[in-house]
Amino acid sequence: MEQIQIIDSKNHVGETVKIGAWVANKRSSGKIAFLQLRDGTAYFQGVVVKSEVPEEVFQLAKGLNQETSVMITGEIREDTRSKFGYEIGITGIEVIGESNEYPITPKEHGTDFLMDHRHLWLRSSKQHAVMQVRNEIIRATYEFFNTNGFVKIDPPILTGSAPEGTTELFHTNYFDEEAYLSQSGQLYMEAAAMAFGKVFSFGPTFRAEKSKTRRHLIEFWMIEPEMAFMHQEDSLEVQEKYVAFLVQNVLDNCDHALDILERDKELLKKYTKLPFPRISYDDAVELLKKNGFDDIEWGDDFGSPHETFIANSFEQPVFILNYPKAIKPFYMKPHPTRDDVVICADMIAPEGYGEIIGGSERATDYEFLLEQIRQHGLDEKEYSWYLDLRKYGSVPHSGFGLGLERTVTWLSGIEHVRESIPFPRLLNRLYP
């Protein structure tokens, strides 16, 4: 008898199989017991009919507690009433591990309670679906960059300097030196691009920012491509193709997960249409001012309400181009005809999900960068290796960073970024 996973049920209709699973829920009458089973790949129903099994099997089924692990024996059959489409007619049950007084019951629980039990909350159908969307985004990311000639390079997590200033870094001792947890791998990816042409990284980053918004995490994952011999306009095309590719693959491969999340698939399909709209920072400020945002002035960074309004004006991901130089990092290329803005763009997701990509063309002039480093109060010695990149065959190059968790939150249609990562690190939360 073959042991299968629930997700493969469609290939075994009419066959008697074994499945290792957990009991997510159950209900029973005098003559039939229904078990909601999950095995990590999918959920489906197991049916135990009293007249078709020994009495001890039926009584065992009726007495199973939530999250008890079992080995089920039975016949796979079609079930047109369920979205999954299949169920198992159970003939045998072996209890593997008992579960008593499981804390997350089928009722409403507060957020703090669920976060304290995150190690168990991951088992619920909605959280499971979000992690499936996350996994698909990760899988599709590797496919996109691997098929487009990029080489994956892993930048260090421990660094001696900060790419975007020193105010939001986690400090640690590195033997007899000062070190920080990385807030971006970008500078190292620039070095890698000078060696390999097109590169990308995919790893954890850290921000010691005391933020409590629904868009912020302390620890999160970033995808950071960097491309030599590429100007900003070409980079924007890569960015929109990449995001549209992610959306399409989630639609193609996470159909059941999107159903569980009650995500509007027709809305997601709109986000695959290219090109994405673009608006300059200047015009974005004017758009906001004309629509009652009296709190915004040229030179300000946009907050969540501003980004949401701008994105909703286009109903698609939108690029905001060329922000003021004063609110962007030191490494961005200055605009050729203006001293007050740099060549950069943020991609803002629709539906109020905010910035998911930040990118720019990088400055290539050695003296300009040296002056920027000094003006930002950064240590020239710490950045000497970065300046070397402008001394030995510098070329135009551009890159960007996409936040994985914000993208998962957006495509899943969930409210808070804390549900987009298995074990979130938030302000005042380091457990579990």
From TrEMBL:
One of its GO terms (molecular function) is asparagine-tRNA ligase activity. Gene3D superfamilies: Bira Bifunctional Protein, Domain 2 (3.30.930.10), Nucleic acid-binding proteins (2.40.50.140). It catalyses: tRNA(Asn) + L-asparagine + ATP = L-asparaginyl-tRNA(Asn) + AMP + diphosphate + H(+). Keywords: Aminoacyl-tRNA synthetase, ATP-binding, Cytoplasm, Ligase, Nucleotide-binding, Protein biosynthesis. Its main location: cytoplasm. Its EC number is 6.1.1.22. Residues 133-432 form the Aminoacyl-transfer RNA synthetases class-II family profile domain. The keyword Cytoplasm applies. PROSITE patterns: AA_TRNA_LIGASE_II. It is found in: Cytoplasm. Belongs to the class-II aminoacyl-tRNA synthetase family. Homodimer. PANTHER family: ASPARAGINE--TRNA LIGASE, MITOCHONDRIAL-RELATED, ASPARTYL/LYSYL-TRNA SYNTHETASE. This is Asparagine--tRNA ligase. It comes from Enterococcus larvae.
